[in-house]
Specification:
Shape: elongated
Strand content: under 5%
Oligomer: single chain
Helix content: over 70%
Structural class: mainly alpha
Number of domains: 1
Distance between the termini: 59 Å
């Protein structure tokens, strides 16, 4: 019986090593993933989420995985490579969260209501508008099947980066620069209604101040810009969140692709 058990363990060692490598890539991606990788979620919960994602991704990629040596030196190098690839996947998704945070910061600074609602509810310091937009966007992503899309996205990366493949540094640098630039452009685009309203407000305020220098236009305009910002938030937030979710779906469809 012991000999049979030993033989079974010897036969399953390569498959177990491959599963460990899949878990490493999945866990690295989940640690930065929107919703599942937030700092407010306990680390034990994130670990269980990573295991759950591994149980979903593993059957999809197992037939295409090469034979893995279970020896520690070789396995240690593969673990480092797979962790790096997983972090790249997670970063491509985390940048989308940064885009909505950047949009909220631009909107708050443009409309001068940065501290109206006090401190944020997330670990990342950001104005209240950023908190509202980010939490609403993450909620929409989760209820529209983020776990399914993320599982398919991680599994699809094995076609571009098979197990143990080291990404080319130059290509990764070009991809990273393009992603970051696209995030800033996209975030500013989402905040455009607030920026336009702020420009019109300051232009009108300057004209009124020029026409009536004795009038304290700042005291008159402050309630107006606050009310206007809240009204724009009410009207524009659904569109902003919907556009963000559509872009997130595009990133999940090709997490390592160049932005268009």
């Amino acid at each position: 019986m012991l000999e049979g058990l030993t033989q079974i363990l010897a036969d399953t060692r390569p498959a177990l090593a491959a599963m460990i490598l899949v878990f490493v890539r999945v866990a690295a991606a989940v640690s930065l993933m929107p919703g599942f990788g937030e700092q407010a979620i306990p680390s034990r919960v994130r670990l269980m989420v990573s295991i759950a994602f591994t149980m979903v991704v593993w059957p999809m990629v197992a037939p295409s995985l090469p034979a893995i040596s279970p020896e520690l030196p070789a396995l240690g190098g593969l673990i480092a490579i797979e962790a790096g690839i997983g972090f790249l996947i997670g970063i491509s998704l985390r940048l989308m969260v940064m885009a909505i945070q950047f949009a909220g910061s631009v909107a708050a600074q443009s409309t001068a209501i940065t501290q109206v609602a006090g401190v944020g509810v997330t670990p990342d310091p950001m104005p209240a508008i950023g908190n509202i937009l980010m939490l609403a966007a993450l909620t929409l992503a989760l209820v529209t099947g983020l776990h399914i899309k993320a599982s398919l996205a991680i599994a699809s990366t094995y076609e571009l980066f098979p197990l143990g493949t080291i990404p080319i540094a130059g290509d990764i640098a070009e991809w990273g620069i393009a992603r970051v630039a696209d995030v800033f452009a996209f975030g500013f685009t989402m905040a455009a209604p607030f920026v336009i309203a702020s420009f019109a407000y300051n232009l009108a305020l300057g004209a009124i101040n020029r026409a009536m220098p004795a009038l304290m236009v700042a005291f008159v305009g402050a309630p107006l810009i606050t009310a206007g910002a809240l009204l724009i938030m009410l009207l524009a937030a659904p569109a902003i969140i919907t556009v963000w979710n559509d872009r997130l779906d595009m990133v999940l469809a090709n997490p390592m692709g160049m932005p268009k």
